[in-house]
Amino acid sequence: MNNYVEQFNESLNNTKLIPIVETQLEESMRYSLSAGGKRIRPVLLLMTLSMLKTDINKGMETAKALEMIHTYSLIHDDLPAMDDDDYRRGKKTNHKLFGEATAILAGDALLTKAFELISKDKELASEEKVKLIRLLSEAAGHQGMVGGQILDMDSENKDISLDTLRKIHRYKTGALIRFSVVAACTIAKVNSKTFLLLDSFSQELGLIFQIKDDLLDIEGDFDKIGKAVGSDETNNKSTYISILGTTNTKIALEQHVNQALYLLEQLGKDYNTEELKSLTKLFANREK
């Protein structure tokens, strides 16, 4: 995974995604985009491309666009009107350094910059760009991440069912993780069987990531996860733990891991899935 992160960060740093700082807006954009993080979504996209025997450079611009969308969502999530967080990845949140107005605009700018990147990608044909832009728009918008965020906010201070919670996570967290895999399938032009298996795998991966997030919120360490723990309980948010309890949440996590690994096995011997299997286990066992 570190190899993919290094390649992605090198490409990100060597590309003039955002012009040399001329206003506080560009500085604010760069601050959050370069604040570190695991780069899980772009790595998942590149790793899936590699597994599908496709040059990862064909997906590099899409990977950057995806990370910009993710970064914008974090900037906005941290705002006082949303989660009101002071720290992200162990550093002060964007609005704490640059003010709320600039943070909002930085998020807006990163969102729109993402689609500009894909539209200018010289590695892809026009029809591929259009399809990727459509898929990313759906994953990031009201049918995906943003829709999940409002469902999450509407569910605060309420008792909700496990099905409702899964729906929230499928949109809020899972949509961009799913896009990582589906985008790679689109670029690699896989057959329908491979697409369906990897699409199902990506949805399991999204649930694994969020369930582990819920566990880290009560068992995590600020020095490792880079943000306050216990915020879900403080904000009266329903989580897997509040609905199932800690023990059953860990059982559910293991079940989704097993299902994700099973789906990868169904791809057969034509594909080397060891990297994706390792990434799945990393999602489940991470400490941050």
UniProtKB/TrEMBL annotation:
Which Gene3D superfamilies does this chain map to? Farnesyl Diphosphate Synthase (1.10.600.10)
Q: Which CDD domains match?
A: Trans_IPPS_HT
Cofactor(s) it depends on:
Mg(2+)
List the keywords (alphabetical). Isoprene biosynthesis, Magnesium, Metal-binding, Transferase
Q: Looking at the keywords, is Transport present?
A: no
Q: Which InterPro entries match?
A: Isoprenoid_synthase_dom_sf (IPR008949), Polyprenyl_synt (IPR000092), Polyprenyl_synt_CS (IPR033749), Prenyl_diphosphate_synthase (IPR053378)
| SUPFAM superfamilies (UniProt xref) | Terpenoid synthases (SSF48576)
Q: Which family is this protein grouped under? A: Belongs to the FPP/GGPP synthase family.
**What is the name of the protein in this document?**
Polyprenyl synthetase family protein
